[in-house]
Automatic annotation (TrEMBL):
Annotated Heterokaryon incompatibility domain residues: 18-163
One Pfam family this sequence matches: HET
InterPro entries attached to this UniProt entry: HET
Species of origin: Bipolaris oryzae ATCC 44560
Listed name of the protein: Heterokaryon incompatibility domain-containing protein
Amino acid sequence: MGQCRVYQRDELNAGVEYATLSHCWGSTKYLTLSKSNLQQLKTQIPSEDLPRTVQDAITVAHDLGFEYIWVGTLCIVQDDLMDWEREAAMMTSVHGNSSPNIAAAGARDGRDGYFFSRPTHWNCKLQLYNGHHALSCSAAPVSLYSRCLSGMSLMERGWALQERLLAVLTLHFTTTELFWECNHIIACESFPERLPGGTMVPLGFLHKRTIDDPMWP
């Protein structure tokens, strides 16, 4: 990541596009905005003092073409109660106007970052025949959504729920794949059109032994 610094609102043009960060802070202490370092961080943020999750979020935002990203720990003066109250009252506009919200869904705290060693995709492509026509479909574990997204630590944070609901688009970086969510759909790398509804089939039904079953159609 390149050099970055803290900007105040009056330094930015109205309507400027920006991303936001949604993440678990964790208990580890790392660089945050305070009364004592505000002027210093307005000049430059020492990137080596930032946790991996924030560094990765800045990289993702830059790669997506965004010059600015809102990070709570760096955009709210942490030891100033008045600033906390003022900024908390503006969360609707901060996250509602972001494009997109970049969620570190797979990170347990600031040390984990966004990028993980990932397994291969969950789904497999199938051709089903009804005697006349072939139907293309995909099969994936029923737990795809719950295991990869709703079961993540970030989903347990009240602030993260607010950020997710307010944002026009959220990109969820999980430990297995990337999900994207807006008001209309939730999709992922395995199912880029949208997460399927579909039919749930017990795994036992697909075991090889069932093919020899005389009741097999």
